[in-house]
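Ticket #4471: structure export looks truncated?
Reporter: QA, pipeline team
Priority: medium

Steps to reproduce: submit the single chain below to the structure queue and open the exported record.
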Amino acid sequence: MINEVIQRLHRELPATVKLVAVSKFHPFEAIEEAYQAGQRAFGESRPQELLAKVKRLEEVRAERGEPDYMSDIEWHFIGHLQTNKLKMVLPYVSLVQSVDSVRLLEAIDKWGAANGMVINVLLECHIAAEESKQGFSEEELTDLLSSDMHYKNVRICGLMGMATFTEDEALICSDFQRLLDMQQILHDWIGESANVHAGCNELSMGMSDDYPTAVAMGSTIVRIGSMIFGERR
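Actual output as written to the record:
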């Protein structure tokens, strides 16, 4: 099933859209199966689980004597990241999609400076009706971009957002439009803010239930889990 869904999604999605297979809560064997089907980007939301899978991959390589096995995997962190867990995540990921506060951005920048790394991030924006969801508001995003603070060890690559969990297509579209409006705010600061560059075009929106709408509205990254791996095992 994993193989069939992965291949169908790769055929269906435009070349401009990256598929991130959300492998959180699923075993390493499921990642291997998806990898064999051609999937390379995987999303994790818990630092301990991400680290365990990274270590398991190292063990598999050693067992097989194949140092290059799955070496092109691209890990994305998509969950809430606590500042005391950075060392479990930042050395291993290609992109942190869920930077939801200035405090976290500052902590990542400080960690990057101490470890000689520039961390690729997306700013998570609050676009849904649920107050429980986290992220920057339009006002907070503007305040961040207009700040004199320069985050030299963070590269802002774009924005991420989650639509309201609903079957109301109009509400989902409204949420995604809000993220598009915030992307325009980001682009308006290109050349004006030290933290925004011309390549900050990534827009991560769309999951298993709403990704077709997200893609139609301009998403460049979709995060799909249950459609690929099934419900949590």
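Status: closed, not a bug. The export was complete when the record was re-opened. Leaving a note from the reviewer for reference: DSSP finds eight helices and eight strands in the chain.
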